[in-house]
């Protein structure tokens, strides 16, 4: 398969199987030899996912979606993305290659694909996109968000904030990383910048494999916050209850304020990932358990702190995983809330009196964040949400106090650097 065919096949699988791109593309990319081909394939896949609404809007001006085979429509979207955004590839090459793929899907429509893409190419600079005055079209076509999600955020956050959230989630964020030893080896070969929120966190235009080779771990500053809130909390055992691929637990371990950090996750494959990452980072991760944390598997009152970074819809990470916009539906958006509730109850049971649970989700959905913790503390007498900077550094307090809502937690709104996130600290009194 060539680049265009591979990008089309990856996108098709993402939409049919409702999987993340990162779960789908590795097996496809293996078959491409050239590094530039791999990069271009991912550029098309991520670009289509990021701007699908906008591409649909353009394509609809020249073709009727209801009368077009779904595969051909998707293929044409990949062509439209390239014509609109990849200005260094000549239009004739994009059209020719896309038509060649169309011939394999259905030879009868290759002429149609050719004609439509030529029309897009001719007219692309004269197309204007809906303005804010028409809110639903603006959300779907200009901002490329599904209407149900955009309108939900308008209801949850108000129009101004919701539109800001969507714009931020359409940005490609810098690759932010944390070095567990020393950042200076990277500084010899690359320009390394400090990030705006967390001391000891960096970004730069550095290949991912070089970051990893330098014993540094890629982790958004919003995600770093969960362990940072326990930085000065001292204890014997901490449990990272849903820990794979390991980032939060690694950071907590690197602070050295617990005798042991226990890494738990639900499956062998997920635990393998932690081991693989810890080996690369030369971190000695020895306490690992496999259990379904929706069921009681740990002794009650046995650990000093729990990080519960619960499975969720992931809508706070749309910048890095734009396909989340299209694989979530009104039906599955909140499908993890009952798991989150059970896990939070278990986390609280496992922690000792005086101990702390840090609950977090990389989600914009209040049903997965604010509602889970406030329902929990209102039904459990000795559970209290406390001011979350009690055990953090001053730097963290300064950077994040604007996101704190008293008695609730930190609602992190995405920006140029931050993913959307929710984190709250609950004490067992
Ligand atoms: C948001 S991810 C955690 C990311 C991780 N904390 C990190 O910083 O790298 C959620 C994790 O929950 C795990 N998980 C899902 N259901 C679980 C369950 N019932 N019990 C334990 N872990 C579970 C998933 O395998 C996944 O690794």
Automatic annotation (TrEMBL):
Domain of life of the native organism: Bacteria
Pfam families cross-referenced by the UniProt entry: Methyltr_RsmB-F (PF01189), NusB (PF01029)
Biological process according to GO: regulation of DNA-templated transcription; RNA methylation
PROSITE patterns: SAM_MT_RSMB_NOP
Keywords annotated in UniProt: Methyltransferase, RNA-binding, S-adenosyl-L-methionine, Transferase
GO molecular function: RNA binding; RNA methyltransferase activity
Chain positions recorded as S-adenosyl-L-methionine binding sites: 265, 292, 309
Presence of the UniProt keyword Iron in the record: no
Active site feature: 362 (nucleophile)
EC number(s) given by UniProt: 2.1.1.176
Annotated SAM-dependent MTase RsmB/NOP-type domain residues: 137-429
Cross-referenced InterPro entries: MeTrfase_RsmB-F_NOP2_cat, MeTrfase_RsmB-F_NOP2_dom, NusB-like_sf, NusB_RsmB_TIM44, RCMT, SAM-dependent_MTases_sf
Keyword S-adenosyl-L-methionine: yes
Similarity section: Belongs to the class I-like SAM-binding methyltransferase superfamily. RsmB/NOP family.
Designated name of the protein: 16S rRNA (Cytosine967-C5)-methyltransferase
UniProt organism field: Thermotomaculum hydrothermale
């Amino acid at each position: 398969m060539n680049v265009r065919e591979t990008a089309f096949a990856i996108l098709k699988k993402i939409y049919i199987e409702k999987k993340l791109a990162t779960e789908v593309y590795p097996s496809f990319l293996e078959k491409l030899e050239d590094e530039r081909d791999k990069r271009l394939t991912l550029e098309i896949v991520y670009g289509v996912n990021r701007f699908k609404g906008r591409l649909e809007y353009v394509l609809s001006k020249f073709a009727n979606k209801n009368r077009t085979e779904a595969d051909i429509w998707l293929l044409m979207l990949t062509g439209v993305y390239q014509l609109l955004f990849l200005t260094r590839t000549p239009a004739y090459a994009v059209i020719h290659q896309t038509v060649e793929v169309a011939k394999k899907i259905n030879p009868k429509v290759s002429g149609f694909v050719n004609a439509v893409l030529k029309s897009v190419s001719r007219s692309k600079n004269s197309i204007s996109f809906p303005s804010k005055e028409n809110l639903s079209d603006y959300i779907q076509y200009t901002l490329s968000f599904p209407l149900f999600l955009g309108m939900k955020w308008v209801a949850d956050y108000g129009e101004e904030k919701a539109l800001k959230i969507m714009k931020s989630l359409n940005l490609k964020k810098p690759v932010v990383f944390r070095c567990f030893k020393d950042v200076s080896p990277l500084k010899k070969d690359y320009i390394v910048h400090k990030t705006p929120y967390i001391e000891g966190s960096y970004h730069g235009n550095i290949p991912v494999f070089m970051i990893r080779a330098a014993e540094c771990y890629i982790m958004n500053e919003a995600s770093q916050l969960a362990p940072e809130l326990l930085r000065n909390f001292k204890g014997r055992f901490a449990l990272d209850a849903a820990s794979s691929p390991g980032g939060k637990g690694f950071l907590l371990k690197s602070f050295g304020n617990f005798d042991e950090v226990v890494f738990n996750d639900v499956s062998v494959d997920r635990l393998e990932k932690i081991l693989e990452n810890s080996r690369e980072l030369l971190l000695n991760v020895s306490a690992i358990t496999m259990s379904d944390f929706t069921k009681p598997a740990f002794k009650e009152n046995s650990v000093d702190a729990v990080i519960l970074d619960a499975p969720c819809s992931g809508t706070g990470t749309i910048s890095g995983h734009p396909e989340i916009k299209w694989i979530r539906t009104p039906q599955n958006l909140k499908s993890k809330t009952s798991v989150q509730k059970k896990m939070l109850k278990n986390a609280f049971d496992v922690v000792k009196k005086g101990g702390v649970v840090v609950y977090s989700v990389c989600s914009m959905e209040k049903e997965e964040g604010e509602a889970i913790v406030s329902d929990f503390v209102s039904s459990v007498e000795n559970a209290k949400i406390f001011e979350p900077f009690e055990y953090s550094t001053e730097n963290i307090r300064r950077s994040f106090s604007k996101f704190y809502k008293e008695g609730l937690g930190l609602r992190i709104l995405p920006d140029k650097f931050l993913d959307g996130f929710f984190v709250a600290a609950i004490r067992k009194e």
